[in-house]
Amino acid sequence: MKSAVTTPFVPLRRSPLLPVCAIAVLAALLFMLRLDDRLPPASWWQALVAPSPVDLQQLLVHYSDFPRVAVTWLCGAALGIAGVATQQVLRNPLAEPMTLGIFPGAWLALALATVYAPGWLGGGRDAVALVGGTVALGAVFALAARRGMSPLALILGGMIVNLCCGAFSLALAISHYDLLSGLLVWGGGSFGQHDWGIASSLCVRLAPCIALVLLCLRPMAVFDVGDTVASSLGVSLRATRGIALFLTLLITAFVVSAVGVIGFVGLAAPSLARLAGARRLRERIIWSPLFGAALLWLADQLAQLCTVHFGMAIPTGAITTLLGAPLLLMMLRRLHGRPDLAQTPGVPSAPMSARGLRITAGVSVVLLVLVIGVSLGLGRGLDGWHLSRPDEVASLLFLRLPHVVAALGVGVLLALAGGIVQRMTGNPMASPDLLGISAGGAFGLTGALFLTAHPGLPTFLIWCAAGSVLTLCALVLFARASSFAPDTLILAGMTISAVFQAVSTIAISSGDPRVIILYNLLAGSTYNVGPAMACLVALVALAALVAVPFSRRWLEILPLGNAVSRGLGVDISVARFGLLMSSALLTAVATLVIGPLSFIGLMAPHMTRMLGIRRATPLLLVSAAFGATLMVASDWLGRWVLFPQEMPAGVMATLLGGLYLIITMFRRGSQGPSGS
């Protein structure tokens, strides 16, 4: 197996004691300030060891505050150890339960059990969470194994699993909100305690797992010298890796079942230990749990501080994401080498001839017309499937046509936005979905919903566009130093998406009745699309198609590189800025209708390139036809697959897109997913 990382982080020559103490002291100060408001300092020790049965404040501190601190310490330390073990055996400094899909898989399993098999939860949530995390991690490894288990392959596989689990979870939340409302708030990371039961249970469950990890230190340390040398020393790499990952799964399942999803602690704690000077595995296994406990304690104290001052319960998991996501970006800059991107070049398909291009364009248009016809005329009723007569189609046109037009326009917009970004960056994995641009638009929608008095279509459009542009600017600023390297762009986009997801989690946990509206906006349903919205999307899509030939020169020259582009007289800064802003605007309009959950911007241009279409203008136009077809098909399937319930079109498109990416990664083996 290939080595996943060329060079580890460059640790600074200083002791980790200072930074971990600084974090712990800050958390302790916040804790003491809060505790001082409830109980005099002279009574703290008595409240901890022997609270007075007649003193209500001492009882509250003993059974609520101190158990909460104990749980944060236990979970933070456990996640720190799990992060060290995972990164060591995978030789990937970006691996942890969140980035590998374990947390989302465990939470989805709990949601499915809550809705469809509540009896499974009778014996506890640990087994259900363990099964969900195991399935998710297995899917990630199955995807990454086809591309050499490189860091980008693992993170990309984890991102696909995360998005698919998120799509399923969102669909469940919309259709069974009454059953999952409490689980949604708890799933963001809840540390509220009413006794010492959870702390004691975690001690009993986590202690054996951590002890077994410590027993595996010696074989795990051999991974530092490489797979070949480790095998020659008699270490069973497969067995050691399997045991370590199984223990990580157990730890993650116990944490999820106890407090919900806590992201980025398993990534941040080992990374901070490395950056603070912990070079060897034994040093990291000591300092990482201390960093993890201190970080999670600090995040929980900040969450409680926000609750006191703003009157809104903020999940601790959202705070850890907001603190850990910038760290992920910083980590990429400290790598001496880029992760192995599975450099084996793909065998590109032969360029398509002019006659073949005409045939392909005609077939794509015919296919789009057929899908539109099926969407307008074929449906389900109480008697099963029914093909409407022309007069029935005409009578229902006022109801179905806005949905079809909106889906068609969104498909065109996302396909064009994805094609523009891919051509401009020369990165076939770039798309509004994977780069966080769609998530930025959703962030804008969240702001418009909660920060304006009476949001309407113009307000949503302005805020959505602003969120997309802001995200794109941040992405460009960060990735420019690496010349828009694929790993940097994808990981930066994933990080930005995680931050916006944390903001959405905070909004959901507020209990505001507008949360239902937010769900519908983020899910991407055409159910509430009216003629005005459909006309807006159609007009923007038509304008974008008309503008494609005018951007042809930029799109043809920019992929050739900076030197060639300047030599041909292209102002690179102006061209990139114009194309990126155009992509952000198209994405913003599409996000208004379909939400951030869609792979159309990645799928449509990729399918077009696989046919051999290389020139910019035909690639974008054929991609637009494919994108429209995929989106109309997703909308139709979403309306009728679960009839009489509706699956939002954005969720359906994400599921289809995730399945497509999974099949593509399996088929192309060690080749990049682009195939170009």
Fourth-tier CATH superfamily name of the largest domain: ABC transporter involved in vitamin B12 uptake, BtuC
Largest sheet: number of strands, sense, barrel closure: 2 strands, antiparallel
Low-confidence stretches: 1-12, 335-348, 670-676
Amount of helix? over 70%
So, CATH architecture of the largest domain?
Answer: Orthogonal Bundle
Using the coordinates shown, work out and report the CATH topology of the largest domain. ABC transporter involved in vitamin B12 uptake, BtuC
The proportion of strand residues reads under 5%
Number of helices: 28
Task: Please provide the ordered H/E string of secondary-structure elements.
Answer: HHHHHHHHHHHHHHHEEHHHHHHHHHHHHH
The general outline is globular
Order of strands in the sheet with most strands: 1-2
User: What top-tier CATH class of the largest domain fits best?
Assistant: Mainly Alpha
Quick structural overview:
This protein is mainly α and 676 residues long. Helices cover 72% and strands 1% of the residues.
Task: Outline the structure in words.
The protein has 676 residues and is mainly alpha-helical. It folds into two domains: 17-333, ABC transporter involved in vitamin B12 uptake, BtuC (Orthogonal Bundle); 417-668, Orthogonal Bundle (ABC transporter involved in vitamin B12 uptake, BtuC), CATH 1.10.3470. The protein is 72% helix and 1% strand. It has helices at residues 17-38, 44-49, 56-90, 102-116, 126-145, 151-175, 177-187, 197-215, 217-221, 227-232, 237-259, 265-276, 281-310, 316-333, 354-377, 390-395, 397-425, 437-451, 457-479, 486-509, 515-523, 531-547, 552-557, 562-567, 572-594, 600-610, 616-640, 649-668; strands at 378-381, 384-387. A two-stranded antiparallel ribbon has the order 1-2. A hairpin with a 2-residue loop joins strand 1 (378-381) and strand 2. 52% of the residues are buried. Mean pLDDT is 78; it is low at 1-12, 335-348 and 670-676.
